[in-house]
Amino acid sequence: MCLDCAGVVNGTASVDACGVCSGGTTGITPNSTCLDCAGVANGTASVDACGVCSGGTTGITPNSTCLDCAGVVNGTASVDACGVCSGGTTGLIANASCTDCLGVVNGTNTIGSSCDDGDPDTSGDVWNSNCNCVGATINCSSDAGPDQATCATTLTMAGIGEGIWSGPTQVVFTNTSDPNTTITCSTPGVYILTWTVTIPGCTASDEISVTFNSQMDPSFNYGTNVFCQNTGTTTPQTVSPNGSFSAGVGLVIDPVTGTIDPSNSTAGTYTITHSIMGNCPTSSDQQVEIVTSFDAGWSAPVSICGNASPVDLNALITGDPGGTWSGPGVIGNMFSPAGLSGILEVTYTAGTGACAESWSSNIAITSVPVANAGPDATVCGYEHDLSALVIDGQGTWSGQATFSPTTTDPVAHVTVASYGTYTMTWTVTNNGCSASDICTVVFHDPGSPISVDAGPDQNLEEQMDTHLQSSSTPGAQVLWTVLEGSGTFADPTRHGTNVRGMAFGRNVFLIHAFIGDCQSAWDTLVVNVGELFIPQGYSPNGDGHNDRFEITGMAAYPGSKLAVFNRWGQMVYENDSYANDWDGHSKNGHELPNDTYFYVLNLSGKDTYNGFVVIKR
Prior knowledge:
Layout: E1 14-15, E2 21-22, E3 46-47, E4 53-54, E5 78-79, E6 85-86, E7 122-127, E8 133-137, E9 148-150, E10 154-156, E11 164-166, E12 172-173, E13 182-184, E14 189-199, E15 202-212, E16 220-221, E17 226-228, E18 237-238, E19 244-246, E20 268-276, E21 282-291, E22 303-305, E23 311-312, E24 324-326, E25 330-331, E26 334-335, E27 342-350, E28 357-366, E29 377-380, E30 383-385, E31 394-398, E32 402-404, E33 413-415, E34 420-430, E35 433-444, E36 452-453, E37 458-461, E38 466-469, E39 471-472, E40 477-484, E41 488-489, E42 496-500, E43 505-514, E44 520-530, E45 537-538, E46 561-565, E47 571-575, E48 595-603, E49 607-615
């Protein structure tokens, strides 16, 4: 690839006599002589921003901004012999010999300095640019500017010329000699200020009137920004009582007092403006919101019985629906009197936020009367004396029977027409609440036999208690007694009862079933309680007899551990939950030879037994 000095393939750019890549695409004209602006071959002088050849051998420092001493770009001003920037735009004539306007070298009567032109009707005499002493013709007058008024506490004066301000003590001047001074006054009123001009041979004064108007404060406050429609009128507190109130359409407001009437206003957000007119009009705003009110009215029931069904509270609402309920016995919108008593306060809240409304009412829970129909009974014949318990209120019997002397007698004599099981209901009413209880009476035919079954016999191992479950003719009473052995019944009058404290060996229990003075029946139950017995040998030959090492009573000790060792102390069998299943094989499944073996038996982690057992097939 063929690149020129500018990196262009087959380009024509080349390095000129100055060693610069020029020509081709560079845009630089080749320099054959390579002279700088000072005519020096390969020199470093160049033309600066002012068009001056500087740098290199010129001895001139390049000027990048090209400003003259007056700060003018390419200006002609320069510093004269006196060190003063003159000429150009300065308006000063350059002083080549550095003499003042009186011809004194380095004298003080320089241009702009004070002098005296000898004319008493002039003032402020100075040497002008032509070294002529001139002054301004004296004008013996004062101009304090126009009268002014403000609603603020400060004003800027507009005096003319040189002078001194004066005025009452309520007015404070920032600078009394400044014709445009700022004055401050915190006390409203009209004040006269004087601007006095004093020059040689002349004193003149001018007065102006400045008015500091009273600035009224339009601030007001309703105390809150949110008003519910069901609230009364509200009047704001104001700093200044003057002015008028206004608001958007929908808000009822008194324009003089600012009193708003939420109950007659439309719900929404409004900006209320308090405006005070006069010399200093001003206003203040406050935003208020009128929020829809809610009606939490509901009609509470006079009283509810303690055993009544739950009440739907929403059905009692007379105001706005969709609210929430709270109070004892309230779950959601349901009220349950179960377990409650006395006077209870229940609250309904309609709506949410600042304008939600709550209404509370009391619900009286009336105590439920006690109804006790007395015990169930089984009798012979067609008659029975009931025995209801009277605690409070008035009770009444009901059922398929005849009650005498009346159904309101708690110990009424009841007669039925046929044998069988009857339910008698005792209903008690008190303070508008009622409760019922029943008793079941079995009327049994005296001539009908009854039966009883004590249940199956039981065989237990090392277990001194068990459960007995008998059955008999319906309505029969039972009584358990001990005929042989020992035992204590949890309830000897129940068909199903627990018995404990039995003896080892044979225990015989008798159950007697009877219906009043009618028929009776008896049955017995045998419970055998086996003691722990460890045999000293067995014959695991597969004949179905004595094929396993069976320890009597093991069933009472689940989780017992058995370990068996041969005569050399080697463990040949182990079981962490032994269930009488060792059949003469080792723990590896091999048949053990006939021999004497030694065992360690740990009963459920409690008692430990050591002994021997002989295997003989």
